[in-house]
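Table S4 entry, Metallo-dependent hydrolase.
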Amino acid sequence: MPAILLQNGLLATFTEHDDPLSIPEARQVDLLIEGDRITAVADPNSVQPPEGALIIDCADKWIAPGFVDTHRHVWMSLSPHQEDWTLAEYMAKAPFTTTALTTADDIYVGQLAGCLQALNGGITTLVDHFHAANSPAHIEKAIQATVESGVRSMLCLSRQSTPTSISPFRFDNEPNVSKMQMEMLRTLAEKDHGRLCPDGRVTLGLAYDVQGYNPDEDKRVLSLVRELGITPITMHYVGGPQGASTGYKVRQWSDAGLLQGDCIFSHGSGLGHRNPDLKEWQLLKDSGASIAATPEDELGMGHGDPIVYECVRRGVKVGLGIDCALVVSTEMFPAMHFVLQTERGRIHRELSSRGKGIAYNNIRAASAFRLATLGGAEAAHVSSKIGSLEVGKLADIVIYDAASINLGGCSDPFRGITLHATGADVETVIVNGEIVKKDGKLVRKEWKEVAKQLKRHQKLLGEKLAGIDLEEQYKAAMPILRLAVE
Ligand SMILES: [Zn+2]
């Protein structure tokens, strides 16, 4: 790969030295990429490009770290019509039903589309909770599509079963599925130390939502996975009426002796519900485990209010994510809007209930930018490698068109990227030193072709689903989900 010099652009990045609630100063720089890393960040027009380097003129451009999506089911770009579902409804109709009907070829297309959607909006790293590990072929196709897309991904294979039977509905933790998934995890981990492609952009993680079903099995799986160096380990933690079956997970992992600094709890909503277990905050902080919040769908599906800024105040690692691209936006921008304005709204509401107003918004827009970049890298336990633009870090970079319709009137990139940008303003995306979006267009794949395939596989899946009464599935799943509805 040739070296790349980003010349004279306005750099927006947090570093570990900046307070999460501060506003760092954007500055005009040259940024040099050699191989997969950033090798120089210096005054504008001061860096001599190596011979053969590609020079990108960044006047009127903003240079920022790629977003880190800490919780996404990437393959679910395949599965439409989820926009109005609650969490329990989603569980019953999607992971408990649709997932079991997918073929490995469906997964390839959904996964490829999901990775490209992320890249197009400037998300360069994914923590992918892959809960369609139905067969070795499903797993292999998911890896293939992810590697082909060019995104950086921690592909977390799930160790859990799909339903034993769709009709009548039965769900169990099947031994033969467990055996297959454990064999795949071992094989993939041992092949190249968990690197799923030669340049290490895609690595192996574990998704584990069956903790508590069988404590001996939990111990066996988790100790083997940690022995094999598989990281991170991610699991859902919701609690409350919509997510009763996944409540108090931090406490449960700790009590079982499984809680460590490689864990990522998705949502953590239980910490904001009635009757929270307040000891869990301390357990999170002491262990170094993190929260992956997905504010847009948490608000819409009934998880509860995002607990993100409470994590920031308490010094618990926290990042943002999308969860499912056909429930909410494919992009990180709405996640930043929702988390920021929900917190501001909460503060305003609390004060006004006491007859008070507020003179200044102390939660600044830049704080949401940090959550989506360096905060995400911290939450994914990889902030020594990505999340900020500094010499020695991997070159995962987004270049924004600062003269665009959305951004042309805005001079501060932290505020502009948080509240005004969209994927249309993401002009260039670089992952691991490779340009994967250029002049507003994806480089490795032709999106229109992928979209055609996506529609074809959605139709095939829809034909299978047509024979199933999803409302009956929902009713049958309610006892498993421990859902109490009105
Ligand atoms: Zn999820």
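The domain at 4-65+393-442 is CATH 2.30.40.10 (Urease, subunit C; domain 1).
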